[in-house]
Specification:
Helix content is 48%, strand content 13%. The chain has 247 residues and is an alpha/beta fold.
Length: 247
């Protein structure tokens, strides 16, 4: 099997490592990654200059804004994405396309952070079934889950995008204050996402802005309820934390 990966960063590089270990031939397109580097970490076999050629699948692993542009121009037998949003990519695609999103990542970025076991046991959402895409998911060690693109984007606004925004905003505000010596383990845990890069997250936020804004309004109302002394919010929070623990 032959795959072409657009974007050999954390996600694309991790996919490359995983499927190469399963016998795939992997090419990539990424102007920021030298072939020697891709070869040395086992993420790819060859470098291409353009998204073309005979491949069983093209995997778009670029930032969301770049992915949208690529999908508008890309005409291949099969294309799948691994971005944090689905609907904007689905609207842009002009070929046999499966929008996908593996629920795995890191605050680190780039090929240096890629790991072949990044997706092991993780959910990998897709908005359509395709045997080749399903093989990629299996070969990455992930578990496929079929989902509606709108449902996905609405949900990840809560579970992924808003947490990133809150962590970043609080870290930026704290940076303006003299509070470092008062920072404990709780703050450090909460601010782990604040190490993320704007080049990765700004396109995601822009692509899913409607859902993010809608949920932010509701979220801020809960903040106000806590400040106003509504202890029931703590009970609801613990209930959700227990759901997470149960998986």
């Amino acid at each position: 099997m032959r795959a072409l990966i657009a974007g050999l960063g954390l996600i694309g590089g991790s996919i490359g490592k995983a499927i190469r270990a399963r016998g795939w031939h992997v090419a990539y397109v990424d102007p920021n990654v030298r072939l020697d580097d891709a070869l040395s970490v086992g993420a790819a076999d060859e470098r291409r200059e353009t998204l073309g050629g005979e491949f069983d699948a093209v995997i778009v692993a670029t930032p969301a804004d770049v992915a949208i542009v690529q999908l508008r121009e890309l005409n291949a037998p099969l294309v799948t994405s691994v971005c944090s949003v689905m609907q904007p990519l689905r609207k842009a695609a002009r070929t046999n396309f499966v929008a996908g999103h593996p629920m795995a990542g890191s605050h680190e970025h780039g090929l240096a952070a890629a790991r072949g076991d990044l997706f092991e046991g993780k959910r990998w959402f897709v908005d359509a079934r395709n045997p080749t895409v399903e093989q990629i998911i299996r070969d990455c060690g992930a578990v496929m889950e079929l989902v509606d693109a709108h449902e996905h984007d609405d949900a990840v606004a809560i579970t992924s995008h808003i947490p990133q925004i809150l962590s970043t905003a609080l870290a930026a505000y704290a940076n303006e204050q003299d509070v470092v010596r008062f920072a404990g383990s709780g703050l450090r845990t909460f601010l782990r996402l604040a190490e993320s890069n704007a080049s990765v997250w700004s396109p995601v936020i822009e692509a899913n802005l409607d859902a993010i804004n809608r949920h932010l309004d509701e979220f801020l109302s809960r903040v106000n309820e806590i400040v106003d002394g509504n202890d029931a919010i703590f009970d609801a929070a613990r209930e959700f934390a227990e759901k997470l623990d149960r998986g």
